[in-house]
């Protein structure tokens, strides 16, 4: 997607899967490209939607990943936090606060790396 500088380093299990099952990994990435191009949403909106979906599905790794990608694409911490806050009325307070805590964890990690 546009707005991203370089591919994110994959977790070791995903790297291993991609190496051992290259055609599946390539097909998965091709599907991702196809769905990204299938509609009118811009790259930033698509990524925000993916962050929201990860929060709703309570996928900690995906929330961290989409937070990192958002920061690399120039999003502000406030934009990322807003996604979690919007989840309060849809997912409920506990789920939204869980997502917010994961976003905050990643923001802290990235701040520590920058120092």
Topology:
Layout: H1 12-20, H2 22-36, H3 43-56, H4 60-72, H5 77-86, H6 88-91, H7 93-114
Helix pairs in contact: 1-2, 3-4, 4-7, 5-7
Low-confidence stretches: 1-5
Strand composition percent: under 5%
pLDDT averaged residue by residue: 92
* Series of H and E elements: HHHHHHH
Give the overall shape: globular
Number of strands: 0
The chain-level structural class is mainly alpha
- State the helical fraction: over 70%
Q: What value does the Rg take, in angstroms?
A: 15 Å
Distance between the termini: 28 Å
Describe the structure concisely.
The chain is an all-alpha fold and 115 residues long. The chain has helices spanning 12-20, 22-36, 43-56, 60-72, 77-86, 88-91, 93-114. Helix content is 76%, strand content 0%.
Q: What does it look like?
A:
The chain has helices spanning 12-20, 22-36, 43-56, 60-72, 77-86, 88-91, 93-114. The chain contains 7 helices and no strands. The model is unreliable at 1-5 (pLDDT under 50). It folds into 2 domains: 8-39; 42-114, AhpD-like.
What features would you highlight for this structure?
disordered N terminus; single chain; mainly alpha; AhpD-like; globular; 115 residues
């Amino acid at each position: 997607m546009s707005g991203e500088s370089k591919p994110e380093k994959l977790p070791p299990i995903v790297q291993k899967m991609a190496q051992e099952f290259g055609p599946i990994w390539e097909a998965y990435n091709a599907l991702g490209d196809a769905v990204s191009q299938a509609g009118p949403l811009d790259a930033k909106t698509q990524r925000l939607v993916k962050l929201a979906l990860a929060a709703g599905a309570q996928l900690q790794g995906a929330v961290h990943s989409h937070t990192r990608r958002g920061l690399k694409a120039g999003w502000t911490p406030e934009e990322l936090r807003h996604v979690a806050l919007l989840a309060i009325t849809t997912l409920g307070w506990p789920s939204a606060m869980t997502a917010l805590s994961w976003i905050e964890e990643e923001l802290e990690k990235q701040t520590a790396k920058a120092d």
